[in-house]
Write a structure and sequence with these properties.
The complex is a heterodimer of chains A (about 500) and B (about 120). With about 500 residues, chain A is α/β, with parallel strands linked by helices. Chain A is built from 20 helices and 14 strands. The chains are: A alpha/beta (about 500), B mainly alpha (about 120).
Chain lengths: ~500, ~120
């Protein structure tokens, strides 16, 4: 443990999801894969770097494997830490000679003493011309919400870096895929669909994203936006500064995903390609989704995410997985997120803005949900209330995006609700009688009581049959898109639209 | 007659609120452009009129409009029975209602923030 008496605020535990630094570094900055993410502050500020978000990458998870901090102490607070920062930057590049890109993140301590991080970064870049450094000034005390950090880093990135690198454009159809952090491979699943259509993804903001690709965002024809809460700012600025339009999509759920793929395809005139993917994926995975839907019908769900899943999921988990959303909340959602979430909820759902623990417990008592979908920290409270919980920030066994991913979500909800542990955990061994003449009931013994196999429940429907790892096989995949490059998408007038 | 029109408008509003995201951009001026662009093009598609795709932004409006028109037609069979002049009236009423719900009647204070 660090010896410094500077308060070791870690970016999550003490502040829930309220820290601006967390919103900037841990949510948006750190998923960039080919970057040294240096935290300029006490070593404790790096605490949340490891394993709290599973934003994997295809370069052996470089950005997850290492945590870097300048390790500020009291003497630096008194005498300044710019020299320390400069030495740390140089040491980091020497320690990782293959990495030439760095993001530096301000913390409360370095912000309070007024270290000029931009000047230090500029000096190092002059001395080491082959490196490039991004500076993010979003200290924890800068605001009461991680969403403020999202905002800061979006604007900082477009101000400092977009337009400073010319990407290689190899397709007539070029997009930025924005607001996906590749949790357990979500972004890689979506990119596979786009590439199968023949679309080049210039950058992903920021899951599995490359620093230089993100400097070249200005060359895309379209910004495809997934999480508007965390990344609409950069899309809006790209529209304002470079005229690149923004198309909002839903990557979760069969119907919303099908519509979303078709929307992107229509922009470029690639409808046939999109339809082939939608038909193939739906035929493969819909029967397995149906298996879970029948067994989860009417189960009560509290959908308590951080931000965007409030509105990405509120309607579609009811429509396609069969559960009933009895409550939605968001810890850092804005008014706009509640507009969207409440609009998509069924009548009667309880919407709570930024609840504290007591309010959460009251809601559990009142609504008696069968499962709560939330983050890891409120999840611990939920577990103590003996209600099944699923981590929908870092996921359990994702990815959850894509057609197969949506079945994996249904599978995980099923496994959580029907887990035999709930029969056992309810017994108080100090006073309850423990039955010794029978074992516990398995999931199927509970869930299949009312299932009758007939024409509405065909035997072709079965539990998930996919592989444990569905992402690695996509890496290095060759896409044959050359035949699709002959098409020009229409700018002009069409009759009747279709 | 007026009540019937209002009821139809509310049905279309329900569809948009449940299945679309385009109406909830973060600033009032963006919402005005989105509502105008997409709902005008949806009306043109439903009335089988030419749709302009002069810019990439127009093309984005058109993409959402095509899917909205398709969703309307498949969800509300009564739309096919309406005459084009009535569809235009319906869509005008829908635009006014969506403008009210997402802009003029919205309690979202971020809508007027001059910066993104």
């Amino acid at each position: 443990m660090p010896t410094s008496r500077i308060p070791q605020y870690n970016s999550g535990d003490n502040f829930g999801m309220r820290l601006r630094f967390l919103g900037a570094k841990h949510v948006i900055g750190a998923p960039m894969k080919d970057v040294i993410h240096l935290c300029h502050g006490p070593v404790g500020c790096t605490y949340d770097t490891w394993h709290t978000k599973r934003y994997i990458s295809d370069n052996d998870n470089f950005q997850l494997k290492y945590a870097w901090a300048t390790d500020m102490k009291e003497k630096h607070v008194v005498f300044g830490a710019e020299k320390l920062l400069k030495q740390n930057i140089i040491d980091c590049f020497k320690a990782f000679p293959d990495i030439k890109r760095m993001s530096i993140y301000q913390t409360c301590a370095s912000a309070l003493i007024g270290d000029d991080m931009n000047a230090v970064a500029k000096k190092v870049m002059e001395e080491m011309p082959d490196v490039d450094i991004f500076v993010c000034n979003a200290p924890g005390f800068g605001g009461p919400s991680q969403s403020g950090g999202h905002h800061k880093i979006n604007i900082a990135w477009i101000d400092q870096k977009v337009g400073t690198f010319e990407p290689e454009v190899t397709s007539k159809y070029v997009i930025n895929y924005v607001g996906d952090y590749n949790i357990q491979g979500d972004a890689e699943i979506m990119l596979d669909y786009f590439q199968r259509m023949g679309i080049q993804i210039l950058s992903t903001f920021t899951g599995n994203g490359s620093y230089d690709d993100l400097r070249g965002m200005h060359r895309a024809q379209l910004n495809v936006l997934e999480c508007a809460r965390s990344a609409e700012y950069i899309c809006n600025e790209l529209k304002k500064r470079y005229g690149i339009p923004r198309l909002d999509i839903d990557g979760f759920g069969f119907e919303p995903l099908s519509v979303s793929l078709m929307k992107v395809a229509m922009f470029f005139g690639l409808e046939k390609e999109a339809k082939a993917i939608i038909d193939e994926e739906t035929a493969r995975w819909r029967p397995e989704l149906n298996w879970y839907e029948k067994r989860l019908k009417g189960k009560k769900v509290c959908l308590w995410p951080g931000g965007s899943k409030l509105w990405h999921w509120a309607h579609v988990i009811e429509e396609e997985i069969g559960v009933k959303v009895v409550s939605v909340y968001s810890k850092f959602g804005h008014q706009g997120d509640f507009e969207k979430g409440v609009a998509r909820c069924s009548e009667g759902a309880l919407a709570i803005d930024d609840p504290n623990e007591l309010e959460g417990l009251e809601a559990m008592e009142m609504l008696k949900p069968d499962i709560i979908l939330t983050g890891v920290r409120p999840g611990e409270v939920v577990k103590k209330a003996r209600i099944p919980y699923m981590n929908i920030h870092a996921y359990h066994n994702g990815p959850y995006k894509g057609f197969e991913g949506w079945v994996r979500l249904a599978r995980d909800i099923y496994n959580a609700i029907y887990s035999p542990i709930h029969q056992l955990s309810g017994l108080d061994i100090s006073k309850d009688e423990r039955p010794t003449d029978k074992g516990f009931l398995t999931r199927r013994m509970i869930s299949d009581v009312d299932i009758i196999e007939d024409e509405t429940t065909p035997s072709s429907e079965q539990p998930y049959t996919g592989e444990y790892d569905i992402v690695s096989k996509l890496r290095g995949k060759i896409y044959s898109s050359s035949q699709k490059q002959e098409k020009e998408y229409i700018i002009g007038v069409v009759q009747g639209g279709t | 007659m007026e009540d019937l029109m209002k009821d139809k408008i509310e049905q279309l509003v329900d569809y948009i609120m449940k299945w679309c995201l385009w109406q909830f951009h973060s600033r009032a001026w963006d919402r005005e452009k989105q509502n105008e662009g997409i709902l005008t093009k949806t009306m043109q598609i439903l009335c089988e009129e030419p749709v302009e795709l002069e810019t990439p932004t127009y093309r984005c409006y058109w993409v959402d409009a095509v899917l909205l028109a398709k969703g309307f037609k498949s969800t509300y069979p009564w739309l096919a029975m309406m005459e084009k002049k009535d569809i235009k009236l319906l869509m005008k009423g829908l635009k006014d209602r969506i403008d009210y719900l997402t802009i003029t009647g919205s309690l979202n204070k971020e809508l007027s923030n001059p910066l993104y």
